[in-house]
Amino acid sequence: MSMDKLIPDCPYPGCFFCVMKEGNPNKRRASIMKFFRELPSQDDDGQVLPISGLWNTAMAHPNDPEFIELGIFECMAALIWKGLKNRRWLSHDQNIYIPYYAAHIIGSYTMNMEDFAETAVNAGVIPPLVELLRGRLTWVEQRVAVRALGHLATYASTFPAVASHGEILELCIQLAMSSLEIVYSHFYQNTDRRLSYHCDLLTRGMGGVEMESRKAEEWASQLQCWSLQLINCFAFKPEFLSTICKPEFLVKLPGMWGGLVNENSPAGIGLLRTICHHKFGRGPVSSCPGVIEALCNIARSSDDWQYMAIDCLLWLLQDPNTFHKVIEKAAPAVLDLAEISTLGDHKKLGDSILNVLQECIQSHGTGRNSVSNRTKEDVEEILHSRERFKWEKSMPKEDLHIKQAAALVVKLEGNSLFSSGNISGAASKYSEALALCPVRSKKERVVLYSNRAQCYLLLQQPLGAISDATRALCLHNPVNRHAKSLWRRAQAYDMLGLAKESLLDAILFINECSQSTDPDLSSRQNKVPDYAERLVKKQMRAAWLFREAAIKHGGIDCEADVGDVYGQGSDDSEWETASESDAGHDGRKEMSNNDGEWINDEGIMDKNEKHSTRGTAFTISYPY
């Protein structure tokens, strides 16, 4: 480096790190400014060292204005251009790292401060970032380029500069759809052909092949999610929706979920929510049945972004131009959620759902696009339960106790039918008990819905099981944390081949087991049931981010054997009894003997007796 020597005993004249040690503030600023101005024109070895130092500083202090004022953005843009235009320089020494670091530095300094972003745009950072986004180097540089452009697109003052490069949106759409395959085929699949600088950047030189692969999956997810974030900035502007809302892109959005490695990103569902917020976006979405079905599944799941799917469905139902396309699929899904009182920041969500459905019925009760009688009946059933709740408030306590006792008797009849193998009869009894059970007895209703969900599982009716398990989870306090219902819904989703939804429920079930104070679980050395671990492993394979790419490129068989998670183990999740609800109990005390059998005063019931349905063995512990 050709800067003047600042410290006599430094072996490297003009060393940037010596510049940073300068005690005189004015000299320090002048030296840094000179360094930024001269660095892109120099060809000395060791340039990557100060750049990596700047990268660390940008990550640690992204809101510090010093380097912004002294020309760091002009320097980084010039270095990216140099790497793109001068391949001889790029391949020399360790210069191959520099475009990556430069783009990352731009992204770090623009992620929080709008005035920094304005300075970056004026410094000309967008054109070289766009070239990286095109794939002029590799996917690693694409990742940091889309990150930086996404930050610039976030601010009202700098979005027009990003949008003026018309190809950015199209490039991001293509990258969102192809990013996982790019990373898999160019890096993950061929461990012996990985570029060494990619491996170093991924692991910071601290890991082997296995760690590189894990980090590659994380970075691939980020590449996709950051592409979606940038597209999301465009989606707020109606003039770009026609470009975004192509059927071939919309149908893929629900499957873009970030995976377990990037759970903090709303990914595809976040973009769908932005699209559905505008009338120009709702039309194309409503015309994609697969998207509506996926939104219903996400709405009835334990996904962190559940509320986003619910918002989408409600907006589609409220729009007179789209409601008739979605009502038959969306209504059953949102009705299952009508008992939710609060979900995140959404207060009185169940009331909002009912209000929307009532408006649909009132506005479209007759005519060609009228609401079906089945949907009307389902809405009326929920409305009737609300009226029952109001009516129960004025009931004498003795009358309520009578209703509770009657529901308990019918429930026990259902338990008896279940024990004798009459699953259909048991489901009918649980339905009868729900009709009798006071609406205010939420814990008991959770039990009844969850038990009926188990009946539907055994009857090979996964949709019914999902509906009842969802209703149980909505009634439970806290919402979506009833372990047995999570497990039953996880199995139902598995029956439908919905790996992601099954995986999320199974993971939450395991979390609930690990935190449980249930004496039966507490007595185990491992609170996590083996059958749950098996299901999680199966679904992690099925929902693996690289699965489609691996199938396409011959990494795995199209229908790889993921094993039968039921056949080799038992479902030890206990059926709840009246003693676990707020409806009272029949005075029996449950206990277990040393052989793991559950005992009550009616006798011994084998904890591990199985019901087999079409080759899938479910192990049930009976109610008592």
From TrEMBL:
InterPro entries linked: ARM-like, ARM-type_fold, ARM_7, TPR-like_helical_dom_sf
Biased composition annotated in UniProt, kind: Basic and acidic residues: 582-592
Domain ARM repeat N-terminal plant span(s) in chain numbering: 10-246
Gene3D superfamilies attached to this UniProt entry: Leucine-rich Repeat Variant, Tetratricopeptide repeat domain
Region annotation Disordered: where it falls in the sequence: 567-596
Designated name of the protein: ARM repeat N-terminal plant domain-containing protein
Organism: Centaurea solstitialis
